[in-house]
């Protein structure tokens, strides 16, 4: 999803005047829209489906990082031990 500098950067005035066109572009291209205020980037518009995919990936990477820390700090145990405990708790 590379950004097109000429197409994907809009001013807040553009957003106010051409909201429909900007949203059509957003959905057609799948690329984010950078909204500027006084010539500086201020906000990013992104398609909700793309956002959800990015959010899932971010959440997964956070879980993986946590697991990697557990492995590094030796906070692990054998899988058989875990599965036995899981079975016991399911019976209770």
In words, what does this structure look like?
With 92 residues, the chain is α+β, with helices and mostly antiparallel strands. The protein has a 3-stranded mixed sheet.
What is the topological layout?
Blueprint (H helix, E strand, L loop, with lengths): L8 E3 H6 L1 H11 L3 E5 L2 E6 L2 H25 L6 H13 L1
Parallel strand pairs: 1-2
Antiparallel strand pairs: 2-3
Give the tags.
4 helices; three-stranded mixed beta sheet; alpha+beta; 92 residues
Low-confidence stretches: none
Indicate the proportion of strand residues. 15-25%
**Sheet with most strands: strand arrangement:** 1-2-3
Tell me the span between the first and last alpha carbons: 49 Å
Query: Helix fraction?
Result: 55-70%
Number of strands: 3
Summed up, the helix count is: 4
Morphology: elongated
> Would you tell me the structural class of the helices and strands?
alpha+beta
Order of helices and strands: EHHEEHH
Indicate the radius of gyration in whole angstroms.
23 Å
Short précis:
With 92 residues, the protein is α+β, with helices and mostly antiparallel strands. The chain has helices at 12-17, 19-29, 48-72, 79-91, and strands spanning 9-11, 33-37, 40-45.
């Amino acid at each position: 999803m590379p950004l097109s500098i000429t197409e994907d950067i809009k001013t807040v005035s553009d957003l106010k005047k051409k909201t429909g066109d900007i949203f059509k572009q957003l959905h057609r291209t799948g690329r984010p829209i950078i909204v500027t205020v006084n010539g500086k980037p201020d906000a990013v518009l992104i398609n909700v489906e793309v956002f959800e995919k990015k959010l899932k990936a971010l959440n997964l990477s956070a879980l993986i990082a946590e697991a990697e820390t557990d492995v590094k700090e030796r906070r692990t145990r054998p899988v058989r031990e875990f599965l036995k405990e899981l079975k016991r708790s399911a019976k209770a």
